[in-house]
Amino acid sequence: MRRTVGTLTWPLAALLASLLAGGGAAARAPRHPDFTGLWSSSSLTELERPDDFKTLTVTEAEAAAFEKAHRGKPPAIGDPNNSVGGPDTDWWERDVGLARIGGQIRTSWIVSPADGARPFTPAAKAAQKARRMRQRIELDGPESRDLDERCASLNAAGPPLDNGGVNDNFQFVQTRDHLAIYAEWMHVVRIVRLADATHPAPAVRLPMGDSIGHWQGAALVVETTNFRPRDVYGDAVPPQVDPAADMRIVERFTRLSAGEILYAFEVTNPAQDTQTWRAEMLLHATRGPIYEYACHEGNYALANMLTGARRLEGKTVQGPGR
To answer: How many separate domains does the chain show?
Structure first.
């Protein structure tokens, strides 16, 4: 595993030049803990608890058995985290074990509810199931495919942050007035304002929401609101409901050591969840670098699926993967 703090990488350096310009040394010398560096959320622990476990924490023996079965292996074929190409076509960062937080071996990032699962409403569960069924049969056009397939997802930089066994790397750049979070996956950047305590008007909706931060002692607390409906965390959105209307995500970053950040968050979204749910994640310093994520450049799957659909309709359309 990569475990040392790296240096600033392009293109984030160029993107943030304007933030650093004019601030001089003062901008790079915050009075609070500095989270600048390269970080990874790579772990066999993921957001929701797998069926292998029934409790949030397990013993060393239970963890060792799970890690032996899963370390170094991609998700099984059919797992939502596995790609169309199959486990042999991707580089999965699963050479790590379950996360240890506060001396406890964690089986999920979710700590509440106790079952380690997203507390979807019945309507949200039904919408999620219907969406997955539609994706299997609807190939009329690109709009029917999800954002990941279209290389248009903006969730990688949060909120909240997550992991999935591949491209689980982030670069943080902190100045006096801003924190930038750059995700390797989809090369998305989120800017957190540290000198502004006011969100825009409710009518203003942004792809990743509007993030403002403040300090509580040594912890950085970030509140995000003003989400655009299709970009909320997860895709189980009931029809005719605005899931962003009352959505609020609060993140908390606490520097535990030179090589660890405790990252905690809570999500409140009455349109989609039955209750506020909370999670804790450990971010490890990583050597880097942040690699290019060339999604559009190699995205033959979408064109091939649509080409296949046209042929089923009796039409002749040549796609780039022919």
So the answer is: 1
